[in-house]
Design brief:
single chain, 787 residues, alpha/beta, MutS, DNA mismatch repair protein, Chain A, domain 3, Rossmann fold, 5 domains, 7-stranded mixed sheet, 6-stranded antiparallel sheet, 16% strand, ATP-binding
Length: 787
C-alpha cells in the first residue's frame, strides 16, 4: 500500500519507469513496465531481483542473447482463434520471426543449463513446436511474401499471368514500333495510364489505330491509347490476378486453420517474449545507474551502503559530476531517523533516496548501492513530501499535512515505512513542534520504521532521548559555508540560519537584531551544534590520517617480515654453495696430487722433474684454496652489547653487526647472512676497526631490500615498455624471494592486461594470476603469486 496515491511521483518512481520503458523493444514490454507495482511477497521480490541480476550478467559478461524480433503474437493468436478469419502474409511473417526468436532464446539457455536458473524458469516446461515454423515456411518466403508455388493452382495462375504479360508486352511493342515508323506517335515512349500500358499518339492520328483512350495531355495534343489487341490480353491478366488473390486467401485460410490448434502455445510464446523484453529493459537500466542486487531479508529493515539516488546519478553523469554516497541503517534498534541540518544541505534528497531505493527493490529493480546492502519488506509506505494544499477541499498546507498525519497514526504499524519531509512545518512553530513531537511519539510506540527531516529543536531533543529514534545530520563545512551532502548518524545538525544569511549578504545590523530576538537557550543549543560539528570534522580528519599512518606501518612490518624470511633462506643457499665449492676444490686437489705422484713415478724420481712437478702442484693448490683475509686484531671491548654494535666470534675472526638480542642468544648480520650465537661466544669490537668496504656492503644490501616495492603501475605505458618494467620487477622479486607482485594496468579495452598475462604465464616460477576484488579495482589490477 502506498499513501497517498501520488507518492510514487513524489519519490521519482514514475520517472524511473519511463527510463526503463525507453529500453523496451516492444509495446508489450512497455505495457509490463507500466504495470510494475510495489510487492510485499518476499519470494516474488527475490525472484524478480534475481532475474534482473542474471540478465545484467548476460549483458555484461556473456554472449549476446539472440533477441531480434518482438511482435505482438497475442493479437495475432486471438485473430487466428476466430473461425473463418485468416492471417495476412505480413502477419504470418511476424509469427514466423517471433517463433524463430523464441526457439533461439530457448537454445541459448539450454546451452547454459543451470547458469541462469531464474531466467530459465520463464520457459520451464514450454515445448518447442517447430511444426508451426515448418507449416508457415512452406507458404511464406524469407521476405514475408507468399511463395509462388504455395499450391499447384497458385503456381498455374502465376505462370498464366507471366505468359499473358509477355504476350501483351510483345504485342504492344510491335504496334508502337509500327505507329512510330508511320509518324503517328508523339515524343516519348510507352507509358502507364490507369494501370494499363499505353501508346502516346498525336491527337490527329487517334483514329488511325483501334483501341481505348485512357487519358490525354494537358494541351490535348497527345492521347494515350491502349490498342484493341492488347486490351483483351490485359483483361485476361486482370482476371488472372483476381483469381490469384482468391487462391492466396484460400491458402492463408487453410494455413490459419492449421495454426488454430496452436493458439494457446502461441500465447505462451508471446508471454515469454514479453517477459524477456521486460527483464532486459530492467537490466539495461540497472547498468545505466550502476545498480547491483542487494541482500533481501524478510523483515522490515534497511541497510544501505554507498547508495545513490538513480535520477541524480544519471544527471550528474551528463555533467561529469559524482554523487556523494549514502550510508544508512534502519532496524529494530534504530527505527526512525530524524535528519536535521541546513537548507539545501541534502536532507530531502537523502530521504527520497531511501524511499525510492526501497520501492525499487520491492518492485524487483536492482538499486545503485553496494551488494552488501540489505533491503527488507515493508507492507505499507506513508509519504508526506511537498505542499499538498487543496483549493477544492479548502485545505491549507498545514491542514493537508495534519490530514496525512491522522492517516499515518491510525493505519501505520511495525511493517510500515514513513517518509516525512519538513516535519511539523506550516504553522506556528510554538504549536507545530509539540504536535509533530506527539505524532512522532505515537508512531514510535507502534514501532513504525522510516525517516523524517526537520529544523525543530524539540524534535532533535526528543530523538536524542527516545529509544528507537536516532538523530542524524547532513554535514556542513562551516568554514567555507558549503554543504558536504554526507549523512552523519548519531547527532543532530544545526540549521546554520545565521551563517547562511551572512553568506548571502543580509545586512549585519539585521543579523544582530535577529540574534538578539532569539532566546538564550535556543542560541546556546545552536552554538553547541555548530561546535560539535566542527569537532566531529576534526576527529574525522584525524582518524583518516591515523588510518593512513597505520596502513603505512603495516606495510613496513610486512616488508620487514618478508626481508627476514628471505635472508634466512638465502643463508642456507650460500652455505650449500660454499660446501659444493669446497667439495669441488678438494676433488680437484686430490686429482692433481694423484697426477703428480704418477708423473714422478714415471720419471723414475728424477730430481729436476720432481722439483718442477712439486712447484706446479704448489701453484695449483694456491689457486684453488681460499685463504682467509689477514685482519688486524680488533681491540676487545667488554662493555654491554646492544643492537647495532659490531661484534666478532671468539672462536674465529668472523665479524658482524648485532640485529637482535633474545636472552642469551644474539642474532648477528654477517654480510647478507644471519647467524645466531650465544652471548659468551661473541666479543664487542669498535666500529672503526671494521673495514669500510664491509660496512658499506652491509648498508647497501639492507637498503636494497628495504627499498624494494612489490607493486608497479604501468597504466598509460606502451605494451613493450610495460613488459620491460614488469620483467625487471619480476627478476628482483625472484632474487629477493618475494611471494607475490601487484600490477596496476587499468581496464581500458583489456589489451594491456591480456599481453601482460600472456607474458607472465611463460615463467615456471609463476604459480597463478588473480584479479583484484571488484570493489578495489577488479580486472584493472593483476596479482602475481610466485611459487
Amino acid at each position: 500500500m502506498l499513501y497517498p496515491n501520488n507518492s510514487i511521483d513524489k519519490l521519482g518512481f514514475t520517472e524511473v519507469k519511463e527510463l526503463i520503458k525507453a529500453h523496451c523493444l516492444s509495446i508489450m514490454g512497455q505495457q509490463m513496465v507500466d504495470k510494475i507495482q510495489v510487492m510485499s511477497n518476499f519470494d516474488l521480490i527475490k525472484k524478480f531481483l534475481n532475474q534482473a541480476a542474471e540478465f545484467k550478467n548476460i549483458l555484461q559478461n556473456d554472449a549476446a542473447l539472440p533477441i531480434h524480433h518482438f511482435f505482438d503474437i497475442k493479437s495475432l493468436a486471438n485473430k487466428a482463434k476466430l473461425e473463418g478469419a485468416f492471417l495476412t502474409e505480413d502477419e504470418f511473417f511476424q509469427v514466423l520471426s517471433s517463433l524463430t526468436t523464441v526457439f533461439a532464446v530457448i537454445a541459448y539457455f539450454n546451452q547454459r543449463e543451470g547458469q541462469y536458473p531464474n531466467l530459465e524458469a520463464l520457459f520451464e516446461h514450454l515445448p518447442i513446436e517447430k511444426a508451426i515454423v515448418k507449416k508457415i515456411e512452406q507458404v511464406i518466403d524469407a521476405k514475408g511474401k507468399i511463395k509462388p508455388n504455395a499450391s499447384r493452382e497458385l503456381a498455374d495462375i502465376t505462370a498464366g499471368i507471366a505468359k499473358a504479360e509477355q504476350d501483351a508486352r510483345r504485342k504492344i511493342d510491335q504496334i508502337f514500333k509500327s505507329a512510330s515508323s508511320n509518324g503517328w506517335t508523339a515524343d516519348g515512349s510507352l507509358t502507364v495510364r490507369d494501370g494499363r500500358l499505353c501508346i502516346p499518339l498525336l491527337a490527329e492520328n487517334k483514329r488511325k489505330l483501334k483501341g481505348f483512350i485512357h487519358d490525354e495531355s494537358a494541351s490535348g495534343q497527345t492521347v494515350y491509347m491502349e490498342p484493341e489487341e492488347v486490351f483483351t490480353l490485359n483483361n485476361l491478366i486482370r482476371d488472372l490476378e483476381f483469381e490469384r488473390r482468391r487462391e492466396i486467401v484460400k491458402i492463408l485460410t487453410a494455413l490459419t486453420n492449421e495454426l488454430r490448434p496452436y493458439v494457446p502455445l502461441l500465447l505462451s510464446y508471446h508471454s515469454l517474449l514479453t517477459k524477456l523484453d521486460f527483464v532486459r529493459a530492467k537490466a539495461l537500466f540497472a547498468i545505466d545507474i550502476e545498480a547491483d542486487m542487494p541482500q533481501v531479508v524478510n523483515e522490515p529493515s534497511l541497510k544501505l551502503t554507498n547508495a545513490r539516488h538513480p535520477l541524480l546519478l544519471l544527471n550528474f553523469k551528463k555533467e561529469g559530476k559524482t554523487v556523494v554516497p549514502l550510508n544508512l541503517k534502519i532496524d529494530e534498534g534504530t527505527r526512525v531517523v530524524v535528519v536535521s541540518g541546513p537548507n539545501a544541505g541534502g536532507k530531502s534528497v537523502c530521504m527520497k533516496t531511501v524511499g525510492l531505493l526501497q520501492i525499487m527493490a520491492q518492485s524487483g529493480l536492482l538499486i545503485p548501492a553496494d551488494e552488501a546492502s540489505e533491503v527488507g519488506v515493508f507492507k505499507q509506505f506513508f509519504v508526506d513530501i511537498g505542499d499538498d494544499q487543496s483549493i477544492e477541499s479548502d485545505l491549507s498546507t498545514y491542514s493537508a499535512h495534519l490530514s496525512k498525519m491522522k492517516t499515518f497514526v491510525e493505519q501505520a504499524n511495525g511493517r510500515s515505512m514513513i517518509l516525512i519531509d519538513e516535519f511539523g512545518t506550516g504553522t506556528d512553530p510554538q504549536f507545530g513542534g509539540p504536535i509533530a513531537e506527539a505524532v512522532l511519539e505515537s508512531l514510535n510506540i507502534k514501532k513504525v520504521r522510516g525517516m523524517v527531516t526537520t529544523h525543530y529543536s524539540n524534535l532533535k531533543i526528543f530523538a536524542g532521548n527516545t529509544e528507537g529514534i536516532e538523530n542524524a545530520s547532513m554535514l556542513f563545512n562551516n568554514v567555507e559555508m558549503q554543504p558536504l551532502y554526507i549523512l552523519e548518524i548519531g547527532k543532530p545538525g544545526s540549521s546554520y540560519a545565521f551563517e547562511i544569511a551572512q553568506k548571502i549578504g543580509l545586512p549585519k545590523q539585521v543579523l544582530e537584531l535577529a540574534k538578539n530576538k532569539i532566546s538564550a537557550g535556543q542560541k546556546s543549543v545552536d552554538t553547541l551544534l555548530v561546535g560539535l560539528e566542527r569537532e566531529k570534522k576534526e576527529i574525522l580528519d584525524t582518524r583518516v590520517k591515523l588510518e593512513r599512518q597505520q596502513k603505512h606501518v603495516n606495510m613496513l612490518l610486512s616488508e620487514n617480515e618478508k626481508l627476514k624470511s628471505y635472508l634466512d633462506e638465502n643463508k642456507k643457499e650460500l652455505i650449500r654453495k660454499a660446501k659444493d665449492e669446497a667439495k669441488n676444490i678438494i676433488l680437484n686437489a686430490n686429482k692433481l696430487v694423484e697426477n703428480t705422484i704418477s708423473e714422478i713415478k714415471s720419471s723414475n724420481a728424477d730430481k729436476e722433474t720432481t722439483r718442477k712437478l712439486r712447484d706446479n702442484l704448489s701453484r695449483e693448490l694456491e689457486k684453488n684454496v681460499v685463504k682467509p683475509p689477514v685482519q688486524k686484531r680488533a681491540p676487545e671491548d667488554d662493555s654491554e652489547i646492544n643492537i647495532g654494535d659490531w661484534v666478532k666470534l671468539t672462536d674465529s675472526e668472523t665479524t658482524g653487526q648485532v640485529m637482535e638480542i633474545a636472552k642469551d642468544n644474539i642474532i648477528i648480520a654477517i654480510g647478507d647472512l644471519r647467524t645466531v650465537a650465544k652471548r659468551k661466544r661473541v666479543q664487542k669490537v669498535s666500529k672503526s676497526s671494521i673495514p669500510k668496504d664491509i660496512r658499506r656492503s652491509f648498508t647497501s644490501a639492507t637498503n636494497d631490500f628495504a627499498g624494494f616495492n612489490p607493486e608497479i603501475d604501468v597504466r598509460g605505458m606502451r605494451t613493450e615498455d610495460a613488459i620491460a618494467a614488469i620483467e625487471r620487477l619480476f627478476d628482483r622479486a625472484l632474487m629477493m624471494g618475494y611471494g607475490n607482485l601487484k600490477i596496476l594496468h587499468g581496464k581500458g579495452d583489456g589489451i594491456l592486461r591480456k599481453m601482460i598475462r600472456q607474458y607472465l604465464k611463460k615463467y615456471d616460477q609463476v604459480d597463478r594470476l588473480e584479479d583484484e576484488h571488484a570493489d578495489r579495482g577488479g580486472d584493472g589490477i593483476t596479482y602475481v603469486y610466485l611459487k
